[in-house]
Amino acid sequence: MADGWTYKRQRTLINFLVNSPKGSVFIESVDASDYAKTGEKIFQLLDRFVERVGEVNVAQVVTDSASNNVLAGKLLEAKRPHLYWTPCAAHCVDLILEDVGKLPDFKATLKKAMSVNAYIYVRPSMVNMLRQFTRQKELCRAGVTRFATAFLTLERMHLQKQNLRKMFISKDWTESKWAKEASGKKVAKIIMTLRFWSSIVHILKIYGPLGRVLRLVDGERKPAMGYIYEAMDRAKETIMKAFKEKEEKYKEVFEIIDARWECQLHRPLHTAGHYLNPEYFYSYTDSNICGEVVNDLFETMERLVSSIAEQDKITT
Q: Among 22, 142, 169, 180, which residue has the fewest nearby CB atoms (within 10 Å)?
């Protein structure tokens, strides 16, 4: 696994780790500032670490899905035909959330919610007032990613809807200096607008299922490979049911999900992991098994297992 990041001095570091059923082990951190944007150079770096670990020990190499890494992954698969390059599932789901957050209605609501949050939390006295009305509950909740954090803040605001509305019509607020400021009046207006809250409910019907997928792929509780395929299907089904299958309410979101799923997140390894997961395996019959699942299973088998005799044993 290669995890790149840029710190304050604009230097790009890539941390290399090995993951197995026993957990993750750190190997080395490499300063890639001079060539991090070049796919060929990243390929050489990944290839060197595969050689170091031993190709026979590697099923897949995982990076984020930046364009330079996509090129490096293709070059790596071409040179080493018995392993996979796989984009990081958490990064892909995060990009889905980012794209969803850019839809005009979503963007406007998120912007309003963040402005309310920022207004309160830069004023210590207002934070104390908030806590009195919410029984010490906060509006902020850190997520696994920046975009998850924004949606989780919406979730918290929705839970505290009545308490927030009570606060902004209370004597504590109306007699405060903030109630007389233009910015304070703007925040109070947002909180008292019904359309703002209905928009939050709409967004949470989308975010809730996708957030569960993100927690699955970013958690350490269990290996996610055998669950991603099913989790994404269930997320879409849940969204459809939440809107009573009125397609116009989730069509754009599904287009975003499908675009990321097809070009990045959907990999034969995910499908093979799904098929071989005992939780799902025994529900399959000859009549209900999906052709895509079987095709990806055999593609994975042919790539990872070079011996025809071994492939036959696995099939049996």
A: 22
Asked if residue 280 belongs to a domain, the reply is no
pTM score above 0.85: no
Side-chain-side CA neighbours of 168 within 13 Å: the count stands at 17
- Percentage of the chain exceeding pLDDT 90: 56
**Residues 107 and 64 occupy one common structural domain:** no
142, 143, 147, 149: CA torsion to nearest 10: -30
Task: Look up the domain containing 152 and give its range.
Answer: 89-244
Rounded Cα–Cα distance for residues 222 and 231 (Å): 14
What is the rounded distance in angstroms from the CA atom of residue 39 to the CA atom of residue 1? 16
Q: How far from 140 is each of 23, 80, 86, 225, CA to CA, in Å? A: 31, 46, 33, 31
Same domain, yes or no: 112 and 231 = yes
Tens of pLDDT, residues 179-209 = 999 999 999 999 999 999 999 999 999 999 9
From residue 290, give the alpha-carbon distance in Å to each of 58, 129, 208, 264, 286: 28, 56, 27, 20, 9
**DSSP labels for 180-229?**
GSHHHHHHHHHHH-HHHHHHHHHHHHHHHHHHHHHHHHH-SSS--TTTHH
Task: Please give the structure tokens belonging to residue 289.
Answer: 């098994």
Q: Phi, psi (5° rounding) for residue 307?
A: -80, 125
Same domain, 134 and 234: yes
Compute the chain's Rg from CA coordinates.
24
Q: DSSP H helical segments within the chain, as ranges? A: 39-53, 67-79, 89-101, 104-121, 124-134, 146-159, 161-167, 171-174, 182-192, 194-218, 228-242, 251-260, 268-276, 278-281, 291-304, 308-315
Query: Could you tell me the sign of the dihedral formed by the alpha carbons of 257, 260, 265, 268, in that order?
Result: positive
Closest Cα partner for 95 from 273, 259, 271, 212? 259
Q: What does each C-alpha distance from 65 to 104, 240, 270 come to in angstroms?
A: 25, 28, 16
